[in-house]
Write a structure and sequence with these properties.
13 helices, mainly alpha
Length: 242
């Protein structure tokens, strides 16, 4: 294969990721005023009626929309999570939310790995110096690092989907850590969604800052510390061995 053919193949492999980025940009300008809490409030009776008449179809449609929102990084993921709780309760709503978010994340991961990740990871492995050292450090602590970026509320979801693909993380590890790692936050927002009936009745908006309240944030930070513990122990043992 000559250089031109390699370049064309590279561009072809990058098309899914480029498509996601384009969809995210277009969605930001066209859907940010559509997939909102106000839209959910205005259509709540219709959604409840459809759920009551076609429960299985409602679950499938809801999860499909959620997967598309996450998979193409469209605005409205938080509203989708609230909707899952509102329509299906804390449970099984949290199961539907976490499963759909994981599948959407997998779409981004696969697009990034197919387009850039495999080649970038190979180059990092074949390079020397600090680049290779960073790659090895990530490889040695993959489980801990993956759980950590999912649990820390400040890490953007898109970034947490993209970075693992660029450093050669396996699909299995990515999917497992994503599913388990987003459960705490997903559970909080799903439970908020489950109480939206009363919020709608009072004409108020949901309190999404609840995740930063001590009785919720401290356990999540505890899980973060637990995920980071193997990394810290390895670093300490490494220093002792020097």
């Amino acid at each position: 294969m000559n250089t031109n053919d390699k370049d064309k193949a590279g561009w072809t492999r990058a098309l899914p990721l480029v498509g996601i980025l384009v969809a995210a940009i277009v969605g930001f300008f066209t859907l940010r005023d559509v997939l909102t809490f106000e839209a959910l409030s205005a259509n709540r009776e219709m959604l409840i009626a459809y759920r009551d008449s076609h429960y299985l179809a409602a679950v499938l449609v809801f999860m499909s929309v959620y997967i598309v929102i996450v998979g193409f990084s469209l605005p409205g993921a938080t509203v989708a999570t609230l909707t899952g709780g509102f329509l299906f309760g804390t449970f099984p709503g949290v199961l539907f939310n976490v499963s759909a978010a994981t599948l959407g994340a997998v779409l981004i991961f696969l697009a990034a790995r197919w387009g850039l990740g495999e080649r970038l990871a190979a180059r990092m492995d074949s390079s020397g110096g600090k680049v290779k050292a960073i790659k090895q450090g990530i490889d040695e602590n993959q489980w801990s690092m993956l759980f950590l970026i999912r649990l820390v509320p400040l890490v953007p979801f898109f970034v947490a989907n993209l970075v693992p693909a660029l450093v050669g993380v396996s699909l299995w590890r990515f999917a497992v850590t994503t599913f388990i790692g987003i459960i705490p936050g997903g559970l909080v927002f799903t439970s908020v969604g489950a109480g939206l009936g009363e919020v709608f009745a009072r004409g108020e908006t949901p309190n999404l800052s609840v995740i930063f309240e001590p009785h919720i944030l401290l356990p999540i930070l505890g899980l973060c510390a637990l995920a980071a513990l193997p990394i810290i122990l390895k670093a300490v043992r490494g220093k002792e061995a020097l």
